[in-house]
Design brief:
Largest sheet: none
Number of domains: 2
Number of helices: 12
Length: 282
């Protein structure tokens, strides 16, 4: 009974989540999908209520969290995160004694996942452009900052040189992506939007990475903080991508970390060599 009541609470909670998200969604197609799922969740709740004979209240906390995550981080991410976190319900469905109820619940949950996958968001369409800017900034600027730190040994100068390098590289990446998409046959992406996502992702990453050098006078401590930020960005981005697009997390995470750290190590050696052999003192 406790398990059924927990599932019942999840169903009514998700009913309100979908309903509230539908209120601020602009695309009529997306609104209809969300309202359809909301009605199905309410049907599930009513079926379970007939079995338990009890009314249960939705979780106000979960409604607040998932509605706002979906509002600010995208529908696909918010809704799939909710479905993933409620995946234990499917196990509970499969353990039900009632074969008809078990079949109904499992089939409806699969139907909901299919409906969510129909939600087409601009952010996901341009995720490859974001990946391009983010990945290049992490690999290139992490390596550059490592080399600058060893060669220059001055936080403020490293921050200035890193920012100038980063802005130039972000503009270059944006222009390159614009030309690439514009000349790509059959692409459904807008070249200006694609360029903007690449430019913004690169510049945003640059800003995060040079910030420690602005506030920390010790350049080597700044570099340590930068490396922590790099790993954190990679983890957060790959978590978002794994939830929103269903990609594997571990392989992509470790691949990006190894690339970034590998380039950083190579530039560390270059910076050490330059400092030692050219007697650079700033």
């Amino acid at each position: 009974m406790d398990k059924l009541l927990e599932i019942q609470r999840n169903e009514i909670t998700e009913h309100f989540v979908y309903k509230k998200i539908a209120e601020f969604v602009k695309k009529e197609e997306h609104k209809n999908i969300l309202l359809k799922i909301s009605r199905e969740e309410l049907d599930h709740y009513n079926i379970l209520k007939e079995i338990t004979g009890k009314e249960v209240s939705p979780s106000s906390f979960k409604i607040f969290v998932y509605v706002n995550i979906s509002r600010f981080l995208g529908l696909n991410f918010g809704l799939k995160l909710m479905e993933n976190n409620e995946s234990g319900a499917e196990k509970s469905y499969s353990e039900m004694d009632n074969p008809k109820l078990k079949k109904l619940m499992l089939s409806e949950k699969e139907h909901e996942k299919n409906l969510i996958s129909m939600i087409d968001e601009e952010l996901l369409n341009y995720i490859s452009s974001i990946v391009l800017g983010l990945n290049d900034a992490l690999v290139e600027l992490t390596g550059a900052l490592t080399g600058f730190t060893l060669a220059l040994s001055n936080s403020k100068i490293v921050a200035i040189v890193g920012f100038i390098t980063g802005v130039a590289a972000s503009l270059s990446m944006g222009v390159s992506n614009y030309l690439s998409v514009r000349n790509e046959t059959g692409s459904d992406k807008h070249p200006v939007k694609s360029a903007f996502y690449t430019f913004f992702a690169y510049l945003f990453t640059v800003t995060l990475l040079i910030t420690p050098y602005i506030f920390i006078s010790n350049p080597y401590l700044s570099l340590s903080v930068v490396l922590v930020i790099v790993v954190s960005i990679i983890a957060l981005f790959n978590f978002y991508n794994s939830v929103a697009r269903g990609f594997g997390f571990k392989k992509r995470f470790f691949e990006m970390v190894m690339l970034s750290m590998g380039v950083a190590f190579i530039n560390y050696l270059i910076g050490f060599f330059i400092k030692k052999n050219f007697n650079i003192e700033v």
